[in-house]
Amino acid sequence: MKKMMKMMTVCLLILSLAACSMEPPSWAKPGHHKELKDMKIGLSVSTLDNPFFVSLKNGVLQEAKEKGMKVITADAQNDSAKQINDIEDLIQQGVDILLINPVDSAAVSSAVESANHIGIPVITLDRSADKGKVETLVASDNVKGGKMAANYIISKVGENAKVAELQGTPGASASRERGQGFDSIADKELNIVTKQTANFDRTQGMNVMENILQGHKDIQAVFAQNDEMALGAIQAIKSSGKNIIVVGFDGTDDGLKAVKQGQLSATVAQQPVLIGKEAVQAASKILKGKKVKSRIAVPLKLVKEK
């Protein structure tokens, strides 16, 4: 009997310790007593090689400074595995909330779920996570932006024009949504002769466009799902001597400069600095125990050549 009681005591102790290990650390518990100025934000960015995400990061830093909050930034360098490791490191560093701009919406889900498990709130920026609890997504309406691009191309080259589509990183929600919006109109009113991935990268955009021009010599327009790919496509088109309109997406400094110079026909301009600022504003509300909308939409604007 004594032996059985001893075993039961040991079992209860093990269960008790296991339960304790599942408890979130004090800094991650809801309702903790920290002041906002003592809070740490963990920011995981898909890549800082893209000017858009540099601006997004700057928006986060500006708003956090305004509120007296510290930001720890990690650059995933467009590597999903690195991003998951980065997020784990941010958790280990004791961040109070995570702002994540996913490389891949599916791949990042495990990291989101890890944060959920220990009670760290998560906000996603520009791109969503496929799984896990996210307090809010701060992003432009990418579907609407894709439709804006399609309607602009129709206004420039007419219905049934032959169009190429340069797609972003496979698995990124922004790529899916921009393509969804564009295709919802283009499939009916334009002739999409090819869709190819260039991973939101300028050099890849140029290389892919060079290959497209070899196989499709009568293309009239290109929709690139971001400005970096659009600028790469323009380089390839220049070398070919053809006259093809190109529409980008993001409204980066380089993209807007190219529109002003008459090289890029138009760009669906986002506001990356505002996305970053809105995310920090949402984070401060969440950390104060307030509710936020499940999606915070940041307005888009079509910037076109004169």
UniProtKB/TrEMBL annotation:
GO-annotated cellular components: cell envelope
Keyword Nucleotidyltransferase in record? no
Every copy of the Periplasmic binding protein domain together lies at 41-291
Q: Which InterPro entries match?
A: Peripla_BP_I, SBP_2_dom
Q: Which Pfam families match?
A: Peripla_BP_4
| Location of the protein in the cell | Cell envelope
GO terms, molecular function: carbohydrate binding
Specify whether Signal is a keyword of the entry.
yes
Record's keyword terms, sorted: Signal
Say which domain of life the source belongs to.
Bacteria
Where does this chain mainly localize? other
- Using the record, list the residue span of the signal peptide; answer none if the entry has no such feature: 1-28
Q: Which family does it belong to?
A: Belongs to the bacterial solute-binding protein 2 family.
UniProt protein name? Ribose ABC transporter substrate-binding protein RbsB
Organism in which the protein naturally occurs: Heyndrickxia coagulans (Weizmannia coagulans)
* Gene designation per UniProt: rbsB
